[in-house]
Write a structure and sequence with these properties.
- With 144 residues, the chain is of the alpha/beta class.
- It has 3 helices and 8 strands; from the N terminus they run ααβαβββββββ.
- The chain has helices at residues 2-7, 9-21, 40-45, and strands at residues 37-38, 52-59, 62-71, 78-88, 94-102, 109-118, 128-133, 138-143.
- The chain has a 5-stranded mixed sheet with strand order 1-4-5-7-8. Strands 2-3-6 form a 3-stranded antiparallel sheet, with no helix packed on it.
- The longest helix is centred in the N-terminal third of the chain and has 13 residues, at 9-21.
Length: 144
């Protein structure tokens, strides 16, 4: 009897994991990371510590940015992707973004890291928008 009961444990565990790990529409969970902040005030006033954007790439609703900066280990860096809140009327429309970094580390080591953002809240009417990543000079086409 015990052996038959033990046979069902993997099925029960899998069911629980699937239930608790599935996406819930009531939360903001995203595989991409944090959503872009849309704020004219933060676009201008958020920290602007020195960083270099090495590359930026859109896959689906995710914007992956590879960047570098100096510091001790990069563990305390705070990054935000901020949209200016303005939609530039062109064909296709454009939005201006800035990667904000707060870096209080006072070491000379240099690190490369990657971060990803959910950009789904940047969609406008139509099926694409150009994203101008101002502190890199890159312009990316976001198709949705």
């Amino acid at each position: 009897m015990l052996v038959k009961t033990l046979q069902f444990i993997p099925i029960i565990v899998f069911g629980l994991v699937f239930t608790f790990c599935s996406k819930n529409d009531d939360n903001d969970f995203s595989l991409c990371g944090d959503q872009v902040i849309v704020s004219a005030v933060e676009y201008v006033s958020a920290p602007d510590d020195l960083l270099t954007i090495i590359s930026a790439e859109i896959t689906g609703d995710c914007l992956k940015i590879k960047y570098s900066s100096s510091g001790c280990d990069g563990s305390t860096w705070e990054l935000k992707l901020i949209d200016s809140g303005m939609i530039l009327e062109s064909n296709p429309p454009q939005r201006n973004l800035r990667l904000s970094m707060k870096n209080d580390e006072l070491c000379d080591a240099y690190f490369e890291k990657e971060i990803s953002f959910d950009i789904s809240n940047l969609q406008v009417s139509g099926n694409q928008v150009l994203l101008n990543l101002t502190n890199s000079g890159d312009q990316l086409t976001y198709n949705y």
